[in-house]
Design a protein that fits this description.
Layout: H1 13-25, H2 28-39, H3 54-64
């Protein structure tokens, strides 16, 4: 029996395949430039937070910018956000 796939709103099999192809064919230099661009913005920061504190951090962020959809908790299980392997 084939398992039915569930995608987030706005995603489908075709979009997933396009994203996979993009990252699988991306040169290392392009990947580094993309990462530097994403993490190099002076208005943002990246930090490690213990998993147990994530709900509290999300609440604080929601109070700071309540209109931002990006700060809303997701229903996704504990999947990594930066899971790109380098060879």
């Amino acid at each position: 029996m084939r398992r039915q796939r569930h995608f987030p709103r706005g995603w489908d099999e075709e979009r997933v395949q396009r994203v996979l192809k993009h990252y699988e064919t991306q040169a290392d230099e392009e990947a580094v430039a993309e990462d530097e661009d994403a993490f190099g913005r002076p208005s943002h920061t990246t930090m490690k937070v213990p998993v147990a504190l994530v709900p509290e951090v999300r609440k604080l962020l929601a109070k700071h910018r309540p209109t931002s959809k990006r700060l809303q908790p997701t229903r996704a299980s504990s999947s990594p956000t930066k899971g790109r392997a380098r060879g």
